[in-house]
Amino acid sequence: MRRIGTVNDPDKAQELAKRLADYLITLSIESSVDSDGQGGWTLWVRDEERVDEAKQAFAEFLASPDDPKFKVSSEASRIRDQRIAENRRRLETQRKLKMSMPKTRGVGAMSSMPGRQQAIPVTLGVVLISVILSFSTGFARQNTSEIPGQISFEEKAYDKLSFVDPGEYIQTGDAFHSVREGEVWRIFTPMFLHGDMFHLAFNMIALFMLGSVLERLHGSKKYFVLLMVSYLVGMAFQLFLPPPSALPVWARGLAGSPFSIGASGAVYGLFGFLWIRPMIDSFYPLRIPPRNVMLMLGWLVFCIFGISGIANGAHIGGLIAGVAFAMLIPNRFLSDSE
C-alpha cells in the first residue's frame, strides 16, 4: 500500500476522499481511504505500478473536485458489486474443487495442481482405451502373420482404426476416402493409437494431469467437449497442411499427413485452456506454473524443428482450439452445474 495524499477539507474531507476512490476504481486502481485522526482523510493505493497515475488523478481532483468526471458513484458501485459477485463465484468454485479433491497434492512437473482424482470417467476412459488399442495394434509396428499372404490381427486392427485405410489411400490419393465410404469412426479412433511406449506414456501422463483437474472442476460433459474439439481441430490442421514435398527442408516438421495418431492434439488443447483461462478470468482457481508453460511450448518448437515424424499440425491445432475456448467461453457456461 502506498500513501497518495490527504484531503484536508474541514467540512467534507471524507466525502471528497470517497469520491476520489470511486473515480479511481473506474480506472481499475484499487484504493482505500481512512481518517488521519486530525480531520483529514488519507488515500492509499494497493498497486505499486499505478501509484504515479493515482497521484496525477489526486492532483487533478484537488484542483477541481466538482468536475463531472469525478462524479461516478453509480459506476463505482456497479463495479464493486460485480467484483463481489465474481469473488463469491471464485470462492464457490474453490469450495467445490476442495470438496471433490483429496488433500494430497500432485508431484512432479505439475506440482501446483491437484493430484489423484476421483470420478473422472472421461479421462480414465481415454487412458484405458488408448492403452488397449495401442497395445492391440502393436504401436504402429504390427507383427505380420505367420501364414504367408494373410494379414495379421494387429495389421487389420490398425488399418481399420487409422483415419484412412493405407491401401485405399495408395489407390485413390484421397485422405477422406474411408470416411466417405461410411467408416466415420475413423475420425475419432486415431486419437487412441500411439507409435511407441514413450508416445503413449507421455500423452497419457499429460492427459491425466491436465484433464483430471479440468474434468473434476467443470464436469465430464464440458470437459469432453473441450477434449474432443481440441483433438478434432488438431486432426484437421494435420490433414490440411501441405505435404513434405511442398515445404523447404527446414519446415518439413510442419508437413501434413492423414496417418497422424495420438492424443497429443487434445493434450495441447487442455494445456492451452489452462494456460490462457487464468489470464482471462483472474478468479480462475487453477494455474500452470510458468516453467511448465515454457516446457510445453519448448517441446512444441523442438518437435517442429528437431524431430521427424511428429504430427506437429495436431499439436498446433489443438493448442489453438484450447486457447480459443479459454478466450471465448463465458463464465456462466463453465460454472453452470451439469
Can you summarize the main beta sheet? 3 strands, antiparallel
Major beta sheet, strand line-up:
1-3-2
Order of helices and strands: EHEEHHHHHHHHHHHH
CATH topology of the largest domain: Rhomboid-like fold
* Helix-strand makeup class: mainly alpha
Number-wise, the strands total: 3
Mean pLDDT: 87
Instruction: Name the CATH homologous superfamily of the largest domain.
Output: Rhomboid-like
Q: Considering DSSP H and I runs of 4 or more, what fraction of the residues is helical?
A: 55-70%
Question: According to CATH, what is the class of the largest domain?
Answer: Mainly Alpha
Query: What is the name of the CATH architecture of the largest domain?
Result: Up-down Bundle
How many separate structural domains?
A: 2
Approximately how much beta-strand content do the residues carry? Answer: under 5%
N-end to C-end Cα span: 42 Å
- Shape annotation: elongated
User: What Rg is obtained from the alpha carbons, in whole angstroms?
Assistant: 28 Å
Note the total helix count: 13
Residue windows where pLDDT falls under 50 for at least 5 positions: 102-117
